Amino acid sequence: MALSIRGYAAQNATSPLAAHQFERRDPRPDDVVIDILYCGVCHSDIHQARNEWHGSIYPMVPGHEIVGRVTAVGSQVTRFKAGDTVGVGCMVDSCRHCASCNAGLEQYCEEGPTWTYNAMDRRDGLPTFGGYSERIVVSDKFVVSISDKLDLKAAAPLLCAGITTWSPLRHWNIGKGSKVAVIGLGGLGHMGLKFAKAMGADVTLFTRTPGKEAEARRLGADHVVLSTDARQMSAAAKQFDFILDTVPSPHDLNPYLATLKLNGVHCLVGQLEPLDPPVQAGMVILGRRSISGSAIGGIAETQEMLDFCAEHNIVSDIEMIDIKDINHAYDRMLKSDVHYRFVIDIASLKQPA
């Protein structure tokens, strides 16, 4: 029998999110049934709810930074049992047979991954609904274990903001002796600082906002460069092996490329729009520099990150909200008024509206 679930949904691109009742599928033999405890709020939730990426399916229940407890498992599931603390990130399925999936890189599935919300289930063709809800049903292949050593509410954003910054740092072998710069101090940037520092790198924050030095150092930065100060940018020339660029809107890459060493890499994890202004090709050619990009991470890599976080006591800096305050939280996010991630206490779904 299908599960009737309480959640919050967008009914169209302009209406506020509001209480919504919907059905989850009957659990399959490979499924894990999870009571959701906490769900992080990602800026992409706003893009999707407001159809800013032009592919929204309504009603939409957002949320892909999910932490919860297992309540039941299917007959084929051996990795999880009732009572386990688990997480679900941005994906709930993929084709499972292409070269990317076979390499544990499900986020690059050649047929496209099935997203946790605003997608269609590969098996039954029904819409997927996310973590702004009391329960979720997910294939065990897309569920990860979360250590109870971690502050569970602050672990929720690791499922997106965390893995988005961890994956490129791991791919480019950041470690002791690496000189890393992070552009932007938001939900992604603050995780980039924490991870790069814990990996042993010498870490710099690039920021356009004066007065962030103490906060950046608290989060792991060894140095802070004000990117609007030509003198400071000139002093940073040819310093870095790797730049993690978390800025979500178009910005000029050229000043940052000048701060890369020979063979340095500038990796975009926030911006999806065309590069504007154009990149000066000489800046790339004359230092054998690279501009690259990275999207979240595969399931095995996400588990690796969570285990690293448990070992190093790394979680996101968060602000807890009740689900009835989600629309106000969206408004604040659009003003960059959050340090550094909102997390919904899903227990608040049980309170009167």
Notes on the structure:
The model has no long low-confidence stretch (mean pLDDT 97). The two termini are 28 Å apart. The chain is α/β, with parallel strands linked by helices. The longest helix is centred in the last third of the chain and has 14 residues. It has two domains: 212 residues, Quinone Oxidoreductase, Chain A, domain 1 (Alpha-Beta Complex); 132 residues, 3-Layer(aba) Sandwich (Rossmann fold), CATH 3.40.50.720. Helix content is 24%, strand content 26%.
Question: What is this structure's SSE topology?
Answer:
Layout: E1 3-9, E2 18-24, E3 31-41, H1 43-49, E4 66-73, E5 85-88, E6 91-93, H2 99-102, E7 114-115, E8 135-139, E9 144-145, H3 152-155, H4 161-171, E10 179-183, H5 187-198, E11 202-207, H6 213-219, E12 223-226, H7 230-235, E13 240-245, H8 254-257, E14 260-268, H9 281-285, E15 290-293, H10 299-312, E16 318-322, H11 326-334, E17 341-345
Parallel strand pairs: 10-11, 10-13, 11-12, 13-14, 14-15, 16-17
Antiparallel strand pairs: 1-2, 3-4, 3-8, 3-17, 4-5, 5-9, 6-7
Helix pairs in contact: 4-5
